[in-house]
């Protein structure tokens, strides 16, 4: 059954510059004249300039982002800044806590990495459409390279790459599922929201992403 949904987005931007070998957090690095994070937000604004967006940042980075926004006069009215936590799990949970609980009855939430600036409005739209019908929509692409699985003892075995998907964001879910899943105890192995929902026994539906929807993490990614 199709649900009547209120859409929300949580954009998580808590990275540092360590793997980028930069003193500046990677989400603030310039890309084609704008901070990477601004490009990412603008893709969501291109999908909807009224959908409430929660931008989750470390408290230490708030002055940097405020300065960049002031310099560029970038003040979208539907973007609210939320202070992140010590881990990605905690940061997403903080973003979720800022969404009114009354929205859970018919709401959807998309979680996206702040350093994936090439996500398309079409992928965002598909994630909401699929989650509206299926409860979840996790963006992914097929593996191109051969894949081997390594165990704790260093032994490795081949894996059929046709069965492997590389997970991206956005990852979009029913808000009621999402809030219930994030009420579980924090687990250190959670690297994305799909893992949290799966741990809480909710089904995960995969949707097609794009090889262009890269996560900018290293200098080669930025090039």
Automatic annotation (TrEMBL):
Q: Which UniProt keywords apply?
A: Isoprene biosynthesis, Nucleotidyltransferase, Transferase
> Which EC number(s) does the record attach to this protein?
2.7.7.60
- State the signal peptide span: none
A single BP term in Gene Ontology: isopentenyl diphosphate biosynthetic process, methylerythritol 4-phosphate pathway
**Which residues does the UniProt site feature Transition state stabilizer point to?**
19, 26
The EC class name is transferase
Q: Where is this site: Positions MEP for the nucleophilic attack?
A: 161, 215
Identify the metabolic or biological route this protein is part of.
Answer: Isoprenoid biosynthesis; isopentenyl diphosphate biosynthesis via DXP pathway; isopentenyl diphosphate from 1-deoxy-D-xylulose 5-phosphate: step 2/6
Provide an example Pfam family for this protein.
IspD
Q: Give the record's family classification.
A: Belongs to the IspD/TarI cytidylyltransferase family. IspD subfamily.
Q: What does this protein do, in the record's words?
A: Catalyzes the formation of 4-diphosphocytidyl-2-C-methyl-D-erythritol from CTP and 2-C-methyl-D-erythritol 4-phosphate (MEP).
The protein depicted here goes by the name 2-C-methyl-D-erythritol 4-phosphate cytidylyltransferase
* Lineage start: Bacteria, Pseudomonadati, Bacteroidota, Cytophagia, Cytophagales
């Amino acid at each position: 059954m199709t649900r009547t949904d209120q859409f929300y987005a949580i954009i998580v931007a808590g990275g540092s510059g360590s793997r980028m070998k930069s003193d500046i957090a990677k989400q603030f690095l310039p890309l084609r004249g704008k901070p990477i994070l601004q490009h990412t937000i603008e893709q969501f604004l291109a999908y909807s300039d009224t959908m409430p967006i929660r931008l989750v940042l470390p408290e230490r980075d708030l002055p940097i982002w405020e300065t960049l926004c002031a310099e560029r006069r970038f003040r979208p009215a539907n973007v609210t800044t939320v202070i992140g936590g010590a881990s990605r799990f905690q940061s997403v949970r903080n973003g979720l806590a800022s969404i009114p609980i009354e929205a859970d009855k018919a709401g959807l939430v998309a979680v996206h990495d702040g350093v994936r600036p090439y996500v398309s409005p079409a992928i965002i739209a598909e994630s909401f459409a699929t989650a509206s019908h299926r409860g979840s929509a996790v963006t992914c692409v097929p593996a191109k390279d051969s894949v081997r699985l390594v165990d704790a003892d260093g032994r490795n075995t081949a894996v059929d790459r046709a069965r492997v998907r590389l997970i991206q964001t956005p990852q979009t879910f029913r808000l009621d599922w999402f809030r219930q899943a994030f009420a579980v105890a924090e687990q250190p192995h959670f690297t994305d929201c799909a893992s949290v929902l799966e741990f809480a026994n909710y089904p995960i539906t995969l949707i097609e992403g794009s090889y262009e929807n890269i996560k900018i993490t290293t200098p080669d990614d930025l090039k």
